[in-house]
Write a structure and sequence with these properties.
By secondary structure, this protein is an alpha/beta fold. The chain has 15 helices and 13 strands. The longest helix has 16 residues. Bound molecules: (~{Z})-2-methylbut-2-enedioic acid and iron/sulfur cluster (SF4). This is Quinolinate synthase.
């Protein structure tokens, strides 16, 4: 291993000083997250970005998170994503033009209008800034996995119907927890004519889910839980709500990455816990809690390959460039998109 890299990162960080804050998502590798001034789930990181005083934010996470930081940051603040290839396969499952097509169809079907009377759109934070803006302009809001329940309450106070993007699992799990039966939720498939739904189905539905998912979390299956319970009697299962409904139903608890961390910390000495989320967080929790048995729900461990793209080399490169006065990989949301995306994100920060 190249141990000089750590020294270079530390030296560059010292040189840029308080002007630069490094944010790290829980799914980052240990070699990267150890340099973060602040770690969190996407809600806490968005909040940290909105409150940050420094001129530069280096975002060790994925593209949509850096976009949100740019939208929420002060004027003149610069957001840097160390590797531009760090995207999110779930966010890529909803394109703004597809969302516009869906909404135009909703208008034709008579369930809403241009302003969102009739349907409140909610987008999970794992989506492009353009979609956040679309939602904000139609009276909707952004949610994260830690405030999805509050976002549903906010949305249904406005309209009975919710359009949830782009994660069908988070949308279904949250709607169900709010008392909406599965048969009152339909799935809009952007690759099918009219989303694959009849007007009657659209009219009767309380929730219209976008057909998107996280390829990492969707790999956890109910069979994994059954096997864990057989192998480790008394084991506690905690799953991220991006997991399938069948998995979340069988788990003992579900919640965001911040929730999962608290869950493991609060468990008594000697407890066994299996976790359905990205493997870097699971491994870190296992190391930090040697008095407990912390396992991945799937023995193979599920890796988010795009989070993994942020390497110490990329972080070093971004920092050393800053020392030289160069800004690399700046993430800049267009001013027109920024306005309504901020409306939707501000609503997210107000809802708990
Ligand atoms: O991208 C994810 O899976 C996120 C945002 C997880 C979390 O709970 O922070
Ligand atoms: Fe996207 Fe899934 Fe990776 Fe989160 S874990 S960044 S939802 S691909």
């Amino acid at each position: 291993p190249d141990n000089s890299l750590d020294d270079r990162i530390q030296a560059a960080k010292r040189k840029v000083g308080a002007e630069c804050i490094i944010l790290g998502h829980h799914y980052q590798r240990d070699e990267v997250i150890k340099f973060a001034d602040f770690r969190g789930d996407s809600y806490r990181l968005a909040k940290a970005a909105s409150e940050s005083k420094g001129r530069y934010i280096i975002f060790c996470g994925v593209h949509f998170m850096a976009e949100s930081a740019d939208v929420l940051g002060r004027d003149g603040q610069v957001v840097i994503l160390p590797d531009l290839n760090a995207g999110c396969s779930m966010a890529d499952m909803a394109e703004i033009t597809q969302v516009e097509t869906a909404w135009e169809h909703f208008i034709r079907a008579g369930i809403t209008d241009d302003k969102g009377t009739g349907v409140t759109p909610i987008t999970y934070v794992n989506s492009t800034a353009a979609i956040k803006a679309f939602v904000g302009e139609r009276g909707g809001l952004v949610c994260t996995s830690s405030n999805a329940s509050g976002a549903y309450a906010w949305a249904t106070a406005r309209n009975e119907k919710v359009f949830f993007l782009p994660d069908q699992h988070l949308g279904r799990n949250t709607g169900y927890a709010k008392g909406i039966p599965l048969n009152e939720m339909v799935v809009w498939d952007p690759y099918m004519l009219n989303g694959g739904l009849t007007n009657d189905q659209l009219k009767r539905a309380k929730v219209i889910l976008w057909k998107g998912h996280c390829s990492v979390h969707q790999r956890f299956l109910p069979e994994h839980i059954e096997r864990m319970r057989a192998d480790y009697p008394g084991i506690q299962i905690v799953a991220h709500p991006e997991c399938r409904w069948e998995v979340c139903q069988k788990a003992d608890a579900t919640g965001s990455t911040d929730f999962i961390i608290k869950f493991v910390k609060a468990a008594p000495k000697g407890a066994a816990i299996a976790i359905g989320t990205e493997m870097h967080l699971v491994h870190r929790l296992a190391t930090e809690n040697p008095d407990k048995t912390v396992l991945s729900l799937d023995d193979n461990g599920c890796l988010c390959t795009t989070m993994y793209r942020i390497s110490p080399q990329h972080l070093c490169w971004a920092l050393e460039n800053l020392v030289d006065g160069n800004i690399v990989n700046q993430i800049k949301v267009k001013p027109k998109v920024k306005h309504w995306a901020k409306v939707a994100l501000d609503r997210m920060l107000e809802v708990r």
